[in-house]
Amino acid sequence: MFIPPLAPVYRHKGSTLAHDCAAATSRLAAAPDGFARRRRATPRAPLRMRHKHHGHREHTVLEVRAPSKTYPILFYEKTCMNDVAAFAPFIKGRAVLIVTNDTVATFYLERLRHTLDNCPGVDSVEVFVMPDGEEYKNMRTLNAILDMCAQARLDRQCALVALGGGVVGDVTGFAASVYLRGVPFIQVPTTLLAMVDSAVGGKTAVNHPMGKNLIGTFYQPEAVIADMSTLNTLDDRQLSAGIAEVIKYGLIRDATFLEWCEANVPRLMARDPAALRYAAEQSCRYKADVVAADERENGLRAILNLGHTFGHAIEAGTGYGSWLHGEAVATGMAMAAEMSRRLGHLTEADVRRVEAVLTEANLPVRPPPSMTLETFLAYMASDKKVVRGKIRLVLLERLGQAVVTADYDRQVLVDTIEYYRKLYDALPRDYERRLAHLRLPTEGERDAAVAREEASSE
Amino acid sequence: MFIPPLAPVYRHKGSTLAHDCAAATSRLAAAPDGFARRRRATPRAPLRMRHKHHGHREHTVLEVRAPSKTYPILFYEKTCMNDVAAFAPFIKGRAVLIVTNDTVATFYLERLRHTLDNCPGVDSVEVFVMPDGEEYKNMRTLNAILDMCAQARLDRQCALVALGGGVVGDVTGFAASVYLRGVPFIQVPTTLLAMVDSAVGGKTAVNHPMGKNLIGTFYQPEAVIADMSTLNTLDDRQLSAGIAEVIKYGLIRDATFLEWCEANVPRLMARDPAALRYAAEQSCRYKADVVAADERENGLRAILNLGHTFGHAIEAGTGYGSWLHGEAVATGMAMAAEMSRRLGHLTEADVRRVEAVLTEANLPVRPPPSMTLETFLAYMASDKKVVRGKIRLVLLERLGQAVVTADYDRQVLVDTIEYYRKLYDALPRDYERRLAHLRLPTEGERDAAVAREEASSE
């Protein structure tokens, strides 16, 4: 079991004031070591601080230095839902609106509502509870949240608090970015996927029937407050979906971290707190680096979408809410690896490694049979990365190194999708129902499929 | 008739290339005189250039240097709707979507569609025609535009073109800011109000039943292309509504310009091209100054809302579309002037001057009888400038100098609104139907109202 050391570490001691966390953050921003520059050519790893306050719970802070805003991600290993000191520094006004879903509400809503109600200066805490599921991440839910903001007469000093996973965070962030042309909001992610990906970096969105996340904004939160203990109430399927995004960072940025994932998926699945916190912090560090260099996805940031163009097509093509986002991304990453192999970048063994680590995390690596070539191509054609009709894809030059390109033979894309179609005969009959997480094709199945493919292309 | 000279003027001669306009703009941005700095403490007047190209029509250019983007406003005195060279520099992709309304479409849509179709590289021009009227500036129209973008599979290299007045520009800009998290858009204002105010500065919005412009973004266009000849097809009422915003700049920024307005309202009403162009250019210059200093309305920019808090209440309270925005703002400015008088800033004569110049432009200076005190206060309470329950108002310290304040005796606000209620008895019976543009109260009516008010407050 290999856990690389975290560095650089900055230890901050002594004060008991609740808002020291925010104060320390701003001191950090003004530090003379050059970190305070808002843009730099080659992003450095954001500085990490470890707080050991007597006045509130131990937590670590990672800073995101996006060009439009610098803000902290706070990781609490023990729950902070009762801790006024964790939230108060980021609440500036009198009115708070918590947005959550009915699953998360059961566990955390009352505690968080009570905590926010006790923040200094707060005199009203409204609550918006949406149904749980990707299928509710749409303009209708956005409108309902905005109606509530308007009816509660929230002013620009309010705070919207997103308590939940990626769906809640994305739609709440979008609402915050357009209500009164922008009000403050705080991410309180309760899924691993949200902690390592969607809550960080300021992408907000809702889905459109024509495609995933087609409508949204770039809008950074005031803070991301990650209560790692909430992962104990996450169901296994959601946990696996989050691990998909963790593995993604290894694939696109760091082969050493991929090795760590390969060794530690069982610990993550068993919810080992140290492993989860390391995975979350490391993932956020990669993401913060990329966002600092390219907030609005003019270039580099697109690599974070490894597997997403295939994955979004699966999500949209199967109807949002059937596959989890992380599951679709896992399959998309396997498909991107397979396509990278066909373009000569990866070896067969690399592809098997990708499939193995995902399968170990109980993630699907095959699209469902309902996804025909036509369905894939139609949804991929409305991807946001499409330019002048060319579908830009994130592919792997090698494990640990991604590349964004529209410069590939389109036939290879078609062949890749068709390859998975031909695997269907070898798949269990109830694959679609089971989402096919559960096994890799056998050597024989794979060879047979390759043989069928070669026969048909002659 | 007094027209102050325009300065500084930069003359650019010689080239016939269509895109020289854009090239000149970027040269200007790189000029060594310090204009290229993106932020400065005290904004300078944006530099103005006069082009005399052989290859395309004469126009003037004013640059808006917002912190998030620098872009030109191009004023064409003769129509540019047929002129590919006017639009081509700002169209980067293959697909264009024109958004317009059914009134404007009658006059300009086919010509502009044909022109855009002939821009190099463009291979599809879609059209979205909305009904004319403020009541359609809502989330429903926004959704319909976004549906069309998605169904046409527009990519991030597309261009949305807003052909129309403030409603079309605001909702198109909003759509452009959220589709694929932001695509380019071009403002082609066809009303005086849009040319001098709404198309410039990057505020986008839709209305909410709870209040005007409650939902939107800050998002700058690629360019504002003002074809001044379109003002010839504008109806008189719309023209007057635009003049209200022109007069506003005099009231908040420049008493000399207010004098110019007082002398030249008849020329503006008669659509004298030189007067209209001067008014538009001067207004845009004031606005560009303010936007350069405070793009996201953290401070100074709020002065542009003189009359808007009262005016938005009238628009929302009477149902959007009954009063034009400029009419409501005119009445709101008269009310703000009256309230400023009650706070000791303006004299009775100042208030009469404000009312006189607005009335000269055929604008209403009295709210309709349906607007009760309760209605005013309810809608004003959901204004975006409300902070911690206090309604911040733009008032006049003197003619030519505005101030934003929440530090006033609330009773004075109540008294101001009540004062107008008491004037109703002296108003013509069909005031509401006629929008009461047509006359000031007589001396006797005014004195009687003041007497009634004083009697009731004893």
Automatic annotation (TrEMBL), chains A, B:
One GO CC annotation, please?
chloroplast
Q: Does the keyword Oxidoreductase apply?
A: no
3-dehydroquinate synthase N-terminal domain boundaries? 128-240
Superkingdom of this protein's organism:
Eukaryota
Where is this gene product found?
A: Plastid, Chloroplast
The entry's keywords: Amino-acid biosynthesis, Aromatic amino acid biosynthesis, Lyase, Metal-binding, NAD
EC supergroup of this enzyme: lyase
Q: So what does this thing catalyse?
A: 7-phospho-2-dehydro-3-deoxy-D-arabino-heptonate = 3-dehydroquinate + phosphate
Q: Which InterPro entries match?
A: Dehydroquinate_synthase, DHQ_synth_AroB, DHQS/DOIS_N, DHQS_C
Which stretches make up the 3-dehydroquinate synthase C-terminal domain? 242-386
Q: Name one GO biological process term.
A: aromatic amino acid family biosynthetic process
Which cofactors? Answer: NAD(+)
The molecular function terms in GO held by this entry are:
3-dehydroquinate synthase activity; metal ion binding
> Per the record's keyword annotation, is RNA-binding included, yes or no?
no
What EC identifiers does the entry list? Answer: 4.2.3.4
**To which pathway does this protein belong?**
Metabolic intermediate biosynthesis; chorismate biosynthesis; chorismate from D-erythrose 4-phosphate and phosphoenolpyruvate: step 2/7
The entry's family comment says: Belongs to the sugar phosphate cyclases superfamily. Dehydroquinate synthase family.
Sum up the protein's function in the record's words.
Catalyzes the second step in the shikimate pathway.
Name this protein carries in UniProt: 3-dehydroquinate synthase, chloroplastic
Q: Which organism is it from?
A: Cyanidium caldarium (Red alga)
Q: What is the lineage of its organism?
A: Eukaryota, Rhodophyta, Bangiophyceae, Cyanidiales, Cyanidiaceae
